[in-house]
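Below: protein 1.
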Amino acid sequence: MDYTTEDIVNAYQSNRLEYIRADKDDENLKKVSLAILQDPVIQALTAPTMLLPKGKKDVDSYVESVANSLLGVAICLKEDENKTEDKDKKSPTIIGVMCIGWGGISPTVAHHRTAEIGISLLKEYQGKGYGREAINWIVDWGFRHAGLHTIGICTADYNPRAVHLYENMGFKLEGRRRGTIWQNRKWYDLVEFGMTEDEWEALRGLDKA
């Protein structure tokens, strides 16, 4: 194996972003997570949980679950994307949180080699292509380095932007869990997407492993 290849050298970054392993004791990550969890729009679009204000215990539980995932990361701007003048800045600029295999994968089901992606971006960094870039990175990581065979991602059908994005990225519609999300006095479907290792190889123009 050539350990100087781009896939190894740049394993923890993409074009504009870098990815830092989530740490449950990272106060910077907790601060960003609180901002994400306290935004009702982000909460409604990214998780089918009851819409309610979040506090310290919720943040601690959320960050711990991200940290315990198969891979949970803080999505950070690369230095050239971060326009700050402070060259001695110690903390990276975290713009979101992403994981695959939320909360960890039990050894009793690990042999299925499948996991789902979850991602949340701060409002001011949405609509700039960062979500697509980050998802592409973690999909590549899952198939290239974690040995996964299938990767899933889902959204509510009241989030058409996410539906369009996932389809455009090459995820296949696998089904709908009809009327399973109650939001603002209406029932909505959970839309489930997936990608197989073979489909990923075809998308990236790679030979079969």
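Below: protein 2.
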Amino acid sequence: MIIFLRAGGQLRAMLKPDVDHYTRKVEIDGEMTVGEILKTISLDPAYVALIHVDGKMKDLSFKPSNGQTITLQPPVSGG
């Protein structure tokens, strides 16, 4: 299954985007939670404050489906 993770700010550098400036493509085996996916790519879930999927807030226990884009926001964002 393939999902896409998007992030800006400091999270973007940790995410190591490969699709575009903000997005990383991640291939996972079977159903995994967002928290499990983040650990798989060596990104500590503690750096993520908000998770958005299809315009709705989700948490680390959310299990994305194939092709979904997950937007991650750090605890402090903006300027």
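The two ends are 36 Å apart (CA to CA).
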